[in-house]
């Protein structure tokens, strides 16, 4: 029976260490293709054999060796000795041998396990179902929602040491629910090249903006002809720039940015035109925009130090209207949290009801916003005065 226990124990190491080339036998492959059932068969068989060995050994010792009056000797024979023999000759040695000669071991004993698997099929089915429902229950208990993760982050928050790390973690948590419209550059802020522009005008615009990819439009942003990649202009005849206009890639504004990132990677592109449900162009989104949602602002070789915030004194500031409310809150040390509002311009328009004129003043909490620069379409710069309470 020790030999049979060794065969059962060794089979576990042998079956699960077989290489793909050693699984050509269809009957062996059938066993390995159902690993849960095979493992269940091995464990049930091994436990049954080991129980039989322990019971028979105890019976033999009690009937042939006079140790009934000596508890210590009885413990040695019935527990320590039997356990030692089972561990060495029924577990360790067979597994070492089977692991080193897995192919020969399986080829010699696989028929035994086909028989055992068939015999134990009803028991295996019950055990596997119990195991399945147990896993479902454990997974349900272990499932942590987004709110719990955010609370855990807040509990470990250290403003001086881990501010940047917490921002990145929060960005990762929210990454999967963000839409293209949350990240895109609105059409009003997009630099474009007109299809009828002269070559010299195009080159000047490229030099001035430093952008490596620019949309080409036909007088209107809703009529996009394509994309111009600056690298395509190198060594090209100046009068032939229209020949290198690339086909634009369009994405809906409601698209998940996680899915868009996968598309960018698959298609090996960095730029897309954002459209609304009616097909109108709303803006642009780049690979850089998506990555910045996780790790923060990236400065590449074309980026300059474009400050969007200036400190006049401890209570007065000048800010670009596009500055996010999160960044502004940190810079002026005032909590600004408005639903469905992401930047300063959005906050001011929400309070005022429309686009304010230059010189207009808007009050929010202990802050006074003075419009320094604006036009009919947008707010540009705002002076912020913080009134101490």
Protein model, in words:
The structure is a single chain. This protein is α+β, with helices and mostly antiparallel strands and 389 residues long. It has three domains: 1-139, no CATH class; 179-295, CBS-domain (Roll), CATH 3.10.580.10; 309-386, 2-Layer Sandwich (Uridine Diphospho-n-acetylenolpyruvylglucosamine Reductase, domain 3). The protein has helices at residues 2-15, 26-32, 35-64, 71-100, 102-119, 121-142, 146-155, 163-175, 180-183, 199-209, 257-267, 287-295, 325-332, 344-352, and strands at 185-186, 193-194, 213-217, 224-229, 250-252, 271-275, 281-286, 309-313, 316-320, 361-364, 367-374, 379-386. A five-stranded antiparallel β-sheet has the order 8-9-12-11-10, covered by helices on one side. A hairpin with a 2-residue loop joins strand 8 and strand 9 (316-320). Helix 1 packs parallel to helix 4 (71-100), helix 4 packs across helix 5 and helix 7 (146-155) runs antiparallel to helix 8. The longest helix is centred in the first third of the chain and has 30 residues, at 35-64. It is elongated and about 110 Å long.
Beta-strand segment tally = 12
Order of helices and strands: HHHHHHHHHEEHEEEHEEHEEHHEEE
How much is the radius of gyration in Å?
36 Å
If helices are DSSP runs of H or I spanning 4 or more residues, what is the number of helices?
A: 14
Total domain count? 3
- Order of strands, widest sheet: 8-9-12-11-10
Sequence stretches where pLDDT stays below 50 over 5 or more residues: 298-306
- State the end-to-end CA separation: 87 Å
Class of secondary structure makeup? alpha+beta
What gross morphology would you assign? elongated
Question: Mind describing the biggest β-sheet?
Answer: 5 strands, antiparallel
The percent range for strand residues is 15-25%
How confident overall, as mean pLDDT?
78
The helical percent reads 40-55%
């Amino acid at each position: 029976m020790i030999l049979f226990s060794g065969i059962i124990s060794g089979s576990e190491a042998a079956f699960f260490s077989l290489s793909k080339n050693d699984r050509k036998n269809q009957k062996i492959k059938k066993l390995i293709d159902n690993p849960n059932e095979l493992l269940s068969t091995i464990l049930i068989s091994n436990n049954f054999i080991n129980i039989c060995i322990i019971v028979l050994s105890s019976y033999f010792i009690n009937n042939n060796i006079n140790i009934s009056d000596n508890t210590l000797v009885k413990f040695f024979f019935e527990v320590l000795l039997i356990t030692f023999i089972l561990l060495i000759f029924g577990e360790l040695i067979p597994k070492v041998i089977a692991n080193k000669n897995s192919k020969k071991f399986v080829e010699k004993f696989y028929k035994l396990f086909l028989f055992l698997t068939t015999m134990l099929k009803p028991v295996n089915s019950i055990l596997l179902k119990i195991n399945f429902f147990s896993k479902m229950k454990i997974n349900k208990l272990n499932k942590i929602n987004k709110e719990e993760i955010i609370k855990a982050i807040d509990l470990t928050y250290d403003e001086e040491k881990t501010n940047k790390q917490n921002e990145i973690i929060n960005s990762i948590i929210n990454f999967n629910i963000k839409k293209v419209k949350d990240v895109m550059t609105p059409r009003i802020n997009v630099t474009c090249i007109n299809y009828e522009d002269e070559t010299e005008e195009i080159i000047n615009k490229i030099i001035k903006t430093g952008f490596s990819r620019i949309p080409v439009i036909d007088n209107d942003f809703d009529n996009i002809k394509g994309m111009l990649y600056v690298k395509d202009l190198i060594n090209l005849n100046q009068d032939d720039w229209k020949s290198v206009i690339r086909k634009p890639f369009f994405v809906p504004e409601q698209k998940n940015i996680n899915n868009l990132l996968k598309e960018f990677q698959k298609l090996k592109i960095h730029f897309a035109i954002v459209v609304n449900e009616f097909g109108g162009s709303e803006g642009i989104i780049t690979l850089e925009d998506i990555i910045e949602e996780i790790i923060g602002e990236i400065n590449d070789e074309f980026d300059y130090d474009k400050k969007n915030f200036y400190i006049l004194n401890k209570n007065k500031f000048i800010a670009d209207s596009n500055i996010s409310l999160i960044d502004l809150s940190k810079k002026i040390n005032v909590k600004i949290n408005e639903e469905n509002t992401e930047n300063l311009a959005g906050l001011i328009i929400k309070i005022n009801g429309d686009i304010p004129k230059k010189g207009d003043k808007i009050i929010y909490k202990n802050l006074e916003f003075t419009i320094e620069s604006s036009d009919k379409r947008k707010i540009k710069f705002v002076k912020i005065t913080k009134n101490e309470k």
